[in-house]
Design goal:
This protein has 128 residues and is α+β, with helices and mostly antiparallel strands. The protein is 43% helix and 26% strand. Strands 1-2-3 form a three-stranded antiparallel beta sheet, with helices on one face. Keywords: Membrane, Transmembrane, Transmembrane helix.
Length: 128
């Protein structure tokens, strides 16, 4: 009685390995951008708990950028113009909106748009 073999062939294994390698390479390129975004969120939450009462928008921007340095956020990632204040549903909000371009391979890049807003305590002083 002959037994029937089952399993994957060498060619099939190489194809599966190539697909898994492609997605692993893509994850290696994208994970740092998302971990950097986690640092941005953490710095924004710190600003929200401290409040912004009596500070100008420029002071808020400088303080947030200083906090971003402690979170290992690259200086080229967020410019001061990406940091804004506005009215939200629950009062004043600190908003950060930026784009991150991640080179992938050859002429293919990933463009990731990050946007976060957190409610802050206090009012921003007018610019002097």
């Amino acid at each position: 009685m002959k037994s029937k073999q089952s399993g994957i062939t060498l060619i099939g294994f190489i194809v599966v390995l190539a697909v898994a390698g492609f997605f692993a390479y893509m994850a290696m390129k994208l994970v740092p951008a998302y971990s950097e975004y986690a640092g941005v969120v953490k710095a924004m939450n710190q600003m929200a708990t401290e409040g912004v009462d009596g500070k100008t928008l420029d002071q808020v921007r400088r303080e947030l950028i200083r906090k971003l340095d402690f979170q290992y956020v690259d200086d080229a990632t967020i410019s001061p113009s990406d940091i804004t204040m506005g009215q939200g549903a629950s009062g004043n909000e600190l908003r950060v909106s930026y784009d991150k371009e991640v080179p992938f391979m050859y002429n293919i890049d990933f463009l990731i748009h990050f946007q976060k807003s957190v409610p802050v305590q206090g009012n921003v002083a007018p610019a002097q």
